């Protein structure tokens, strides 16, 4: 069990998550653990749902925005993985979670992303698909 003011390392970031103690099956204190850094046991998965219809212009600004957002995360196995679903009239998985295992690869993919285009914008369909998959 953990209480606030204890830091742990998640990838290359350190987060305060609590001070930890070990409890038995009856939730009685067994031992207090020293506040040492430990690796985060979970990954952060981000799926970007990106409008690629003709109503979005200029596309270069979308690419720049996506690159700026993604550059703020620590990308890699055991850290943050990013997938992109682009929609307009149809939904296209541009890349799956973990397909780009490095920040450099991910940012290059964002720079080279082409717009799907289309006259319809099916936002609800795209969000539903991202949520179910």
From TrEMBL:
Domain of life: Eukaryota
Record-linked InterPro entries: ECM_Assembly_Org, VWF_A, vWFA_dom_sf
Domain called VWFA: residue spans: 45-130
TM region(s), chain numbering: none
Name assigned to this protein: ITA10 protein
UniProt source species: Quiscalus mexicanus (Great-tailed grackle)
Gene: Itga10_1
């Amino acid at each position: 069990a953990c209480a606030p003011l204890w830091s742990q390392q998640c990838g290359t970031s350190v987060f305060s998550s609590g001070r930890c103690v070990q409890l038995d099956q009856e939730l009685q204190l067994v031992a207090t653990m020293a506040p040492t850094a430990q690796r985060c046991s979970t990954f952060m998965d981000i799926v970007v749902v990106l409008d690629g219809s003709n109503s979005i212009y200029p596309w270069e600004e979308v690419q720049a925005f996506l690159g700026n957002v993604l550059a703020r995360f620590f990308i890699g196995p055991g850290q943050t993985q990013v997938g992109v679903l682009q929609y307009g009239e149809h939904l296209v998985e541009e890349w799956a979670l973990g397909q780009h295992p490095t920040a450099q690869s991910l940012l290059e993919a964002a720079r080279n992303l082409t717009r799907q285009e289309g006259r319809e914008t099916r936002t609800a369909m795209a969000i539903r698909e991202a949520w179910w998959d």
